[in-house]
Amino acid sequence: MPGITREEVAHLARLARLELSREELDHFAGQLDAIIGAVAAVSDVAEEDVPPTSHPLPLTNVMRPDEVRPGLTPEQALDQAPAQEQQRFKVPQILGEEQ
GO MF terms on file (predicted)? Predict the structure, then answer.
């Protein structure tokens, strides 16, 4: 299998908007080549009857189902607010922008 070239790494870096030095290009070319080699080794071992998985153990959704529950009214939510305006919390301006 041909190795990953500096030019291919430079192309990927441009796509990702990364600026890499010549040393980094060489370094990452070697690393990417090792990663692709490892993936190829796993692909060679994989049997046809074993489906691809993202995790070796079966996972199920452990989140509770969504249930609609009553919420606070605007008046209840703003009841203890130190300042409010037009049914909203009023906070100090932080960005220096005009309203």
Answer: asparaginyl-tRNA synthase (glutamine-hydrolyzing) activity; ATP binding; glutaminyl-tRNA synthase (glutamine-hydrolyzing) activity; transferase activity
pLDDT along the chain (99 residues), means of 10: 82 94 92 90 78 78 87 92 92 77
Spatial contact of 89 and 78, defined as CB atoms under 8 Å apart: yes
Spatial distance between the Cα atoms of 90 and 38, rounded to a whole number of angstroms: 56
Q: Which two tokens stand for residue 38?
A: 């490892």
Question: Which domains, ranges and CATH numbers included, belong to the chain?
Answer: 6-44 (1.10.20.60)
Strand partners, 88: 85
Strand, helix or coil at 41? Answer: helix
Strand, coil or helix: what is 90? coil
Q: How many other C-beta atoms can be found within 10 angstroms of the C-beta atom of residue 29?
A: 19
